[in-house]
Design a protein that fits this description.
Blueprint: E1 3-20, E2 27-40, E3 45-50, H1 62-76, H2 84-94, H3 99-117, H4 121-124, E4 133-139, H5 144-156, E5 161-165, H6 170-182, E6 189-193, H7 200-209, E7 216-218, H8 224-230, E8 238-240, H9 247-256, E9 261-265, H10 266-269, H11 272-283, E10 288-292, H12 298-309, E11 316-320, E12 342-343, E13 365-367
Parallel strand pairs: 4-5, 4-11, 5-6, 6-7, 7-8, 8-9, 9-10, 10-11
Antiparallel strand pairs: 1-2, 1-13, 2-3, 4-12
Helix pairs in contact: 1-2, 1-3, 2-3, 6-7, 7-8, 9-11
Bound molecules: magnesium ion.
Length: about 375
């Protein structure tokens, strides 16, 4: 089987509510999504998606995905998409780094490989759990009162996992954490996501002041060096996501004991092929996981769900799904959707969901 054509679509995905990142990073209202349709001489078609969470969040850039695809296309065409390692090596040779530009191609290849085998991607990766996965909410408010209101709205829709964004004023962060914990129903998963915005001393002030609560903090500081430096000085469990980019990052975090949880972002780390290795590093070091797309449509959420399904139930805390935050749906309601705060693995071979091509407009580039 050979890849004969790659069509690249640029789609704007408007957010229902504008999003402000912490630390003075810019507000954004629309996600810049790239959808990739990979066609083969066997008549099978796979879909991939790369949607960074704006361009001010981490080094990933919507137009950069499309430029990267233009550079890599001559090295991808003609390869067998079922041989995902061949495709991975070809992309890494053609364009070192730029992992976020490679993930949509990797995703489309896994989609085709699954269809060719008559298996879901999760099963092709070795076996997918059918246990539904809780979806983590994203609570990005400022005051304790607003936080309570937003979490109540999510709970009404069945959510049992929450990512509460903190990392502003230190005293207000402590107040909000205490307030959220005082209303926390038994069994709920709550992660306090700092998105890198504390300095070392700010992180220590909050982590030490809330030590009695034993709550988990995600990405408290900018770098792994920062996280390592404060590690002996607090007792809080830590999750890392934004500084978990390469397999070498995963190995360092695992070996040096820098975190108890990996937040694996599929677009950030370069797709399923690379993310599956991080999963194995985590499992072999007693590290649990959250899995998420980074952003995007139901296609990106579904890719994350396939990886999450290959993690033992006890080690997979939740998935984060972006689809509920968007005002457009490129797949007409198909694919895994929020059912009582959970996603269920689709049973169709491959990814299990494809977009409405009419909703994508015409491709911005076609490589043959
Ligand atoms: Mg995070």
């Amino acid at each position: 089987m050979k890849i004969t054509r790659m069509s690249v679509y640029h789609v704007d995905l408007p957010l229902e509510y504008p999003y402000w990142l912490s630390g003075g990073r810019l507000k954004f209202e629309t996600l810049d999504a790239t959808l990739v349709k990979v066609e083969t001489d066997a008549g099978l078609t796979g879909w991939g998606e790369g949607t960074p969470w704006g361009h001010t969040y981490v080094p990933a850039h919507g137009p950069g995905i499309r430029a990267g695809l233009q550079t890599m296309a001559p090295f991808i065409l003609g390869l067998d998409p079922r041989r995902v390692l061949d495709v991975e090596r070809a992309m890494d040779l053609a364009l070192p780094g730029h992992l976020y530009a490679k993930s949509p191609v990797d995703m489309a290849c896994w989609d085709i490989a699954g269809q060719a085998a008559g298996m879901t991607i999760a099963d092709l990766l070795g076996g997918g759990s059918r246990t539904r996965r809780p979806i983590a909410s994203s609570v990005g408010t400022k005051t304790a009162e607003e936080t309570r209101e937003v979490m109540a709205r999510y709970r009404d829709r069945g959510y049992t996992a929450h990512s509460v964004k903190i990392g502003g004023d230190v005293d207000r962060d402590i107040e909000r954490i205490r307030d959220v914990e005082s209303h926390r129903p038994e069994g709920e998963i709550i992660l306090y996501d700092v998105n890198r915005s504390w300095t070392r001393q700010q992180a220590l002030r909050v982590m030490q002041a809330t030590e009695d609560l034993r709550v988990m903090f995600e990405q408290p500081c900018e770098t792994l060096d920062d996280i390592a430096a404060i590690r002996p000085l607090h007792r809080a469990p830590v999750s890392v996501d934004e500084t978990l980019v390469t397999l070498q990052d995963a190995v360092r975090v695992a070996h040096d004991g820098l975190a108890e949880v990996f937040g694996i972002k599929l677009n950030r780390v370069g797709g399923l092929t690379k993310a599956a290795r991080m999963r194995d590093v985590a499992l072999s070091h007693g590290i649990d996981m959250f899995v998420m797309a980074t952003g995007g449509s139901v296609l990106a959420d579904t890719e994350a769900l396939h990886l999450a399904a290959t993690i033992p139930d006890a080690n997979c805390h939740a998935v984060w799904a972006c689809q509920d935050m968007l005002t457009v749906d490129i797949a007409g309601g198909r694919g895994p959707r929020n059912l009582d705060g959970h996603l269920h693995l689709p049973e169709a071979p491959g990814l299990g969901v494809a977009p409405d091509e009419d909703a994508l407009g015409s491709p911005g580039a076609v490589y043959v």
